[in-house]
Write the structure tokens for this entry.
Amino acid sequence: MINVAILGLGTVGSGVAEVIEKNQNQIKKALGDSLHVKYILDIRDIPGAVKDINVIVNDPDIKVVCETMGGKEPAYTYTHLALEHGISVCTSNKELVDAFGVELSAIAREHNCSYLFEASVGGGIPIIRPLRESCGHENIIRIAGILNGTCNYILTNMKSGKNFDDALREAQEKGFAERNPAADIEGHDTARKIAILASLVSGKKISYEQVSCEGITNITPEDFAYAESRGMSIKLLGVYDSSGPYVNVAPYLVPNDSPLYGVNDVFNGIMITGNQVDNLMFYGRGAGKLPTASAVVSDVIECAKSIGHNIKNDFADLNLADNLVPAPAIPERQKFRVLGE
Amino acid sequence: MINVAILGLGTVGSGVAEVIEKNQNQIKKALGDSLHVKYILDIRDIPGAVKDINVIVNDPDIKVVCETMGGKEPAYTYTHLALEHGISVCTSNKELVDAFGVELSAIAREHNCSYLFEASVGGGIPIIRPLRESCGHENIIRIAGILNGTCNYILTNMKSGKNFDDALREAQEKGFAERNPAADIEGHDTARKIAILASLVSGKKISYEQVSCEGITNITPEDFAYAESRGMSIKLLGVYDSSGPYVNVAPYLVPNDSPLYGVNDVFNGIMITGNQVDNLMFYGRGAGKLPTASAVVSDVIECAKSIGHNIKNDFADLNLADNLVPAPAIPERQKFRVLGE
């Protein structure tokens, strides 16, 4: 039995507990052992939960911690502490991975444990691990991803004629957008995610602050009518292109023969172009309790198979990118770039 | 330096040599070592090629063999021999995996080497490994895959009004269909691939012969007009459904809100439905020299990282499925089943 702890019993954290409970039989088959949630840490008063991280990191039974708190603190301090104790950490926290992923990965390596973050990009979609393993030998030329389900839901609704404000309101009513939706609709969430993916494939750490970022607030129903007249749709994409290299977030016109064209509603789709394999796309639920938790659990199983060993995550040795160039300018008399042009 | 041998210098085999040569730098990064093609075996007179498998399996330098011959013999005998010598085998040969994958996987385990077959399904698309690793803890409810590029090319062309014979002829002229296209258009190729995927997730070996199989030869332009009037398209799908369980290959009506709807031309798309992660889709080139070779090379790298150890491929312990039921009947007054109904 492998004992784990969950830090933060919010949406994703409670999902992790649920996936571990409900899929125990499958987990045993995949891992050759069972997973047991020994501790839940939460700052709120939750029956059975602990509030002191030291209880967890000083328990030699604990081999893996799931950091599902979000935000920088106390997630950073707790992750640091766990890794220093040789406890692997699996996280869905893109903000932390972007800001401190390189440092935390180096600490993990030093202490023969692992820092994995599959759930930080694309929710339940397996993307980080396939990039690292199945595509590790590919020269990745481009990544173009629909990485924010809130924006994609709003844009899918605008395609059928709604204006931005109405589409946003509907997304908020259905729980797909926050009351303060800025991080989503201004593209910052997408920027964090494409920065993580671009760092993985470019060999340099690209940070969120280096990503030029335009959101979806200026898109009009007329823009959609224009796109449709050209057989295209409008999607908010995070793009990495090795030819600059550049990384940007912006609304793009997506032709209807692109696999990203049909990625609608809250779904995400990440297109990877390798020099040998050509275009791949990975599609699935980019957010939500159980899909995101499933990605965390896949990392937990990988860590549990490698106790006492560091799993190379390609982040530990990265230097900050100093070679980025701006994305190509939007062509004259066009409001948006066209994907692939 | 890790020495490998390529068995069969056809389309995929020569692609493997090319990927290893052209992506050597990326391979070094991914593997921490370089790959070197020490032998090529081919029955034809090719300068530098060997014809005797014993030269390869008796060379202690050889750690991994790529079996890209296709067909049952001599691929079976050569694979058997390599594995008995503790040499891992990576293959694109779906016929062999379907017929002898269980036996060969058990031999690999016994001799502390590995038998991997990422390239046998979906060409360049990472699907076997993500299923085994990223989704190993999921309870897979359904797989629905567009697994044959030839059929998908023909159907994409029929969608724009061509009849079957003209669409087939065009596919043959462009090199996307064989002169004898039976294995593709009658669904047998798709059946082999869905049998492999279904075996991986069901815990039983499902063989090609157990898959009820209907091809695309009876589809008419009128069928496409009807599909379009319902907002759907027609795709040849290989389907595994855990609720029977059943496995079948048949033309399906695919609604336009399914991610499979937009998988066109020679591309493949494989939708996986897990009980926690919900729908995932993996998309890419399902055939072709370099994409398929890239998948073989990803297996070679995995084997090269695990020399002396068996990589569990979930095939070694499977018993033949004895619990399959027929797929649900086609509803009255319909010619095809509808995906998801």
Chain B has a mean pLDDT of 96. Chain B touches chain A through 53 residues (CB under 8 Å).
